[in-house]
């Protein structure tokens, strides 16, 4: 797991967690990487604050990273068991459920940054998760 400091064109700074640098490049190129505040896809890596890392600090960071990966894995298993995978129809299904056109149920899938922004603007609550916590088959 690699963590990058990111900055959007609107100067919102946030962290991004990626499996590796190629995962970052893939998400950026595919338009999957968006600012969590304003949802713009104009996001760039910025330098992180430098620090001296002692062995104890490195060991603690490794533990946190492992623990974060474990939490994401548990979340993924939960979502796979309890939420219907609607794939790329996520935005449409979320709207239909929100407006009572379909029975309420937990769903998971993928949405473009534009679709996600529109859902939020309509008052539909969604949660964006790192790519490690979604079904990769939906991205093909």
How is this structure best described in words?
With 140 residues, the protein is of the alpha+beta class. Helices cover 39% and strands 17% of the residues. It contains four helices and five strands; from the N terminus they run ββαβαβαβα. It has helices spanning 21-29, 55-82, 90-98, 113-121, and strands at residues 2-8, 13-18, 43-46, 84-87, 107-109. It has a three-stranded antiparallel sheet with strand order 2-1-3. Strands 4-5 form a two-stranded parallel sheet. Strand 1 and strand 2 (13-18) form a beta hairpin. The protein is globular and about 55 Å long.
Notable characteristics:
single chain, alpha+beta, two-stranded parallel sheet, 39% helix, globular, disordered C terminus
Briefly, what is this?
The protein is an alpha+beta fold and 140 residues long. It has four helices and five strands; from the N terminus they run E-E-H-E-H-E-H-E-H. It has helices at residues 21-29, 55-82, 90-98, 113-121, and strands at residues 2-8, 13-18, 43-46, 84-87, 107-109.
